[in-house]
């Protein structure tokens, strides 16, 4: 049997890896403009970091965590997401004295889900957390960041910002009661999964994908009837701020998100282009997470995006610039070829050696490797201290001194 990576994991190679980098580099550029600083947390934590915070009844904690006992007998978990780790880190490092904290991160996350297009067991996320600001201005700021990110890749026509509020604890408890009441009346028709959720996590029934559930959900009482006036006001402020910035949104009253730490604003940028895995970036407000983890009561809001899903949406990285091929036309030119490459690279001119073959084969290879020009060096050139520069598009060739060669190539590379 052919040697394969573990199911749900994959190797990201060459073009795809370049696209991943491009996506995350762009994210980091915007993070800088928005004044966010980087945080890198370990990829595994004590299991307790995720267990209670994400919710005992959440899918992640229930069925998807990679949890294991290490050699010291500690229960550890490969991080399934970044927010709980960041909350843990800001408490561990006593960062909460100087608020607000504006942090960004990127890296691999692990969830034992059923693999399919856009859904993997190891996947990359990048995300932001704005900690310490209760004002809806913070919600607006992180959403504007996400909006700018999609805009920078020309993706605004492919994604929709869906937004909702799940209110404060009081509103949510009231709503849960009325949902349990409603769904209990239709219990027999609900899918087994939703029946289970009725006792543990009634809100999540709202985003069930089951067809018969969907019909029942359609007539479920709306959250808006149970939002207290403060929660309504907060949501109104968020929406007004978004409109002020020209950020288009779609209110989705069924959007509840699968993690327990959320309150008030929840949102997702979804797309129709990736089949079932339609969320490319998701987030929301979490005003009780840090307190729940033993820190002082501190609000937060943030989001994370899936690099793998975004790469499927973008398909290809920006084209690579051209490179200069340097080749030895006989063994006597090889040392000079190395030295010439050293000169070119010192000037930051992208360049590469062609390692073998007769001259015509070498030129073909250079063309295949997207080189615009080739520098040809043989024993004669070494003796005469000249270099042949060939334009691979036109075939024109000229003899140049090292100085002119370098200045010409510098101009062509635009460095
Ligand atoms: P999440 O919705 O669980 O939220 O994940 C965020 C994003 O990660 C999703 O929108 C999706 O693009 C990507 N993603 C999730 N699971 C997979 C998977 N199995 N394969 C590929 N991509 C995936 C969170 O993780 C929250 N921590 C977001 C947040 C930050 N909320 C507040 N701050």
Give an account of the 3D structure.
This protein is of the alpha+beta class. The protein has 15 helices and 16 strands. The chain has helices spanning 15-33, 48-54, 59-64, 83-92, 137-152, 169-185, 192-200, 211-218, 229-244, 289-292, 307-314, 334-346, 359-368, 379-384, 402-413, and strands at 37-38, 44-46, 66-69, 75-78, 101-110, 122-131, 159-165, 250-251, 265-271, 279-285, 300-306, 323-328, 351-353, 371-377, 387-391, 397-400. The strands form 3 sheets. It has an 8-stranded mixed β-sheet with strand order 1-5-6-11-10-9-7-8. The longest helix has 19 residues, at 15-33. The chain is elongated and about 90 Å long. The mean pLDDT is 96. Bound molecules: histidyl-adenosine monophosphate. Histidyl-adenosine monophosphate (HAM) binds at residues 81-83, 111, 113, 118-120, 123, 125, 127, 129, 279-284, 286, 302-306, 308-309. Histidyl-adenosine monophosphate binds next to β6, β10, β11 and α11.
Question: What percent of the residues sit in helical stretches (DSSP H or I)?
Answer: 25-40%
Biggest sheet overview: 8 strands, mixed
Q: Structural class of the helices, strands and pairings?
A: alpha+beta
Large-scale geometry: elongated
What Rg is obtained from the alpha carbons, in whole angstroms? 28 Å
Q: List ligands, each type once.
A: histidyl-adenosine monophosphate
Helical run tally: 15
- Report strand order across the widest sheet: 1-5-6-11-10-9-7-8
Average pLDDT for all residues:
96
Total strand segments: 16
In terms of per-residue confidence, which ranges show pLDDT below 50 for 5 or more consecutive residues? none
Strand content: 15-25%
Give the N-terminus to C-terminus distance in angstroms: 49 Å
